[in-house]
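User: Can you write out an input/output pair for a complex, sequences first and structure second?

Assistant: Here is one pair. Inputs:
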Amino acid sequence: MNYQNTRYPVRERIRTTHSEAWDRISRAGTWWSGTDRIAMVKEARAALNCDLCRRRKAALSPYSDALASAHTPISPDNPAASESRAAELPESVIDMIHRISTDPGRLTRAWFESVMASGISMPEYIEVLSVVTTSIMIDTLHRTLGLEPASLPAAVAGEPTRKENDDVIDGGAWVPLMPADLGATETGMPSVPNIVRAMSLVPDAVKLYFDVERAHYTVAPIAMAISRDQMEFVAARVSALNQCFY
Amino acid sequence: MLLRESGKKSGNDYALDVITAGTGNSGVAHEDLLRQLAETAVAGDWQKLTSLRDVAEPILGAQGLVDVLAIIAGFYSITRIADSTGIPLDEPTRETTREMRSTTHIDDFRYDLKSEKYRKRDESTD
């Protein structure tokens, strides 16, 4: 992480969880190798400078046949993009990462089903989602502080565990969810809200993401120098800007 | 939208439609500054954000500013998990937020509407 290069007081828990997440991403997960997972982060970064993503973002629908081409860097000498191409992730995974990174508010169930039809399994999809969103959170904090995104660690050799999780149910989402008590707690939310259940098909994906997220925000009491109302205002405004229904 | 719940606890009845409208006054302290920080960060306008940090720091404090930026980074990413998995609203909030979702037009973002709204079509660019 590059937090040593800022004069702003980044909380110790954020520094620690970000470093731990980088280390976890560099290692084999449940379905993908460390090399694959590092490539996913590179691809998420490349998406920010992708010509196709920029054209899709400007289109009324991002699913037009006219927009069916490869993800290419706006600047051909963009090192982040050319480096990620060498990793040879499946094209459907590259497209998935770019859409999640640059236009998440217009993801649809029909699109999700097309990813499944391409041969990517739901657990594989979930793990990609976890790695990409974790890296987006870490990179975004760097950028908002005026820092360059952190250098990526070298991938660690190792095999994915390929450990299936059968303890899931149809909870009305596109993906299966863990069973949970749906009753409200004093916060008005269930003890395990659906956002935490969303990636529960791959428990390590939940852990990777939420170990970091909980250092940024929790519904439970958390040390913050702004009020809870201000916290929720910022959270709600960002969600609205991303056109997030949940 | 947990601002509704936190407002109840702090004794404030905030105008929640301001959140989706992006203008107006909800009643939250320093909301214009918080809104500008969120909108500038989500837009990826890093140059403007540099200036905004300088404006925000004396008002929110250095730690307050970093906390705001951490929440922005968190929600900038977590919304992608919801959008990528099509999770339904949590059961307890489905009924209690029905009116609020209508008032704030959050229902316009419903996942079950998006496949049709953004269906594959040829006339795609504006």
